[in-house]
Structures are given as C-alpha cells and as structure tokens.
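Request from the bench team (R.T.):
"We need a structural guess for the complex before ordering more adenosine-5'-triphosphate. Sequence and SMILES attached. Just send the tokens back."

Command: build protein-adenosine-5'-triphosphate structure.
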Amino acid sequence: MTVASDASCVALDGVTLLRGTTTVFDRLSLTLGERRIGLIGDNGAGKSSLFRLLCGLDAPQSGTVHVYGRDVRRERGALPALVGLMFQNPDDQIIYPTVVEELAFGLTARGTARREARERARDFLGARGLSEWADRPVGSLSQGQRQRVCLLALLISAPRLLLLDEPYASLDLPGQSLLAAELAAAAQQLVVSTHLLDHVRDFERVIWLDAGRVRADGHGPGVCAAYEADVRGRLAERPPLPY
Ligand SMILES: Nc1ncnc2c1ncn2[C@@H]1O[C@H](COP(=O)(O)OP(=O)(O)OP(=O)(O)O)[C@@H](O)[C@H]1O
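Reply to R.T.: structure attached below.
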C-alpha cells in the first residue's frame, strides 16, 4: 500500500504550491498520522497554505494531496465528512447571519435535513450553556465569540480531521482554557497551528515550518524548544532599532 492510498492517514506527496508569484512549497512531502499534531513557524512560513491544501481550498501546481486515501482534488464530494478547517479569521468562515444557521450548515452539508439540522444545532448550543446565542446575529458577537462559533460549527459537523488555524489568537484566557478542553476531548485527528507554543508543546508531534520547508518534525517539547532557541538567536543578532 502506498502512503497516498492509506485510509488511516493524510499525505502530501511532492507538492509544489504557488500563491501569486510566491513559491510557498517546493516538492513538499508529509505524512500525518498522529492524533495530535502542532504546526508552528514564523508568519508567512506556510501554515495556512498547508491547511488550504489539505481541505481542497487550493490545488497544488504539482504533486498530490490525499486525506484518508481520498484524492482531495478528485473526490471533493467525500471531503465534508473527512476534513474541516477552522479559519484564522472567523469572517472568512462564517456564511450565515445567525449562529444557529451557521452551525446547521455543517450538518446540511453532510446530508441532514434543514429542520433537523437546526434542532440539533440548538441542542448543541444548549449543551454548552450557549442557548441564548442561537438566534444572535453573528455580527453582534465579539471576534473571540465568532471564533468560538467557528469551532462549534466544525465540531458539530464532526469531520475525521480538524484543521485549526491559530484558534487561540482572539481568545481571552478562560476562552483559551475552554478551547484546550474542547480539543482535548475531541475524538478526531487534530492539526493545530499556533504561535502560542504552550498549546501544542505536549503534543506527540509538532512540525516547524520555515519558509515552506520542514525545519524540524518530532515530539512537541523538542521541536518547540528548537524553534524558541532559533528565535532567541535571531533576536540577539538583530541590529538595535534606529530610535
Ligand atoms: N493570497 C495570497 N496571494 C499571494 N501570496 C500569498 C497569499 N496568501 C499567502 N501568500 C504567501 O504565501 C506564503 C505563506 O503564507 P501563509 O499564509 O500560508 O503563512 P502562515 O504560516 O500561515 O503565516 P501566519 O503565521 O502569518 O498566519 C507567504 O509568503 C505569503 O506572503
């Protein structure tokens, strides 16, 4: 069995991706099989681009992307059940005017009837003490609250692979702790990109992306420490500010 056809993991094989005139990835190959994977690296390293490839939002110029044995470009109908992305910016993700509609969409996309989807969305919110959010216009929620809606939309639709792009970025400390608990309880495979390394430090695997290349890949504590040491080194060499 090739890695691409392995139904138990996610695989990029020889992927080259251009965005605009930038070569983001040049023949990148990766196999993602662990339940908890962290993705770290500087701004512009390619974390969001990797997520866009994995959920079929972008197609590579060459190479292949397979999610649990399915070719992301050729088998799009299978994707909603397999992979879901929580966008870095909630406004890129949220389509519907109210919270209940947004959550229900994740279910109708997988074939649930509209009415049942809305009922389940209300129950889902109720189970989290968020019933009063159901009919709130999404625009009336704060950035961090909209980010929570994005996560809930992903969790209710329950794809096998959850991709979370800087999910902690807008959250207050209680929100971060709540999110960490939701993620710890999630049965699915998770890939979490973050600049807040403590949220992935204990993961069984962390990948450090550096200008589209894998700079380090291994147990979370070691990879996070290597990245932090590299950042410290770069800061120490930086010339002083001119004022
Ligand atoms: N829409 C776009 N058009 C052209 N180039 C883009 C576009 N989006 C991203 N890029 C470029 O692709 C590269 C990777 O960007 P990407 O957003 O994947 O990085 P990232 O690691 O997610 O960064 P951040 O930590 O800032 O979110 C960068 O060089 C970026 O400038």
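Two things stood out. The mean pLDDT is 92. Residues 24-82+159-236 form a domain with the Rossmann fold fold (CATH 3.40.50.300).
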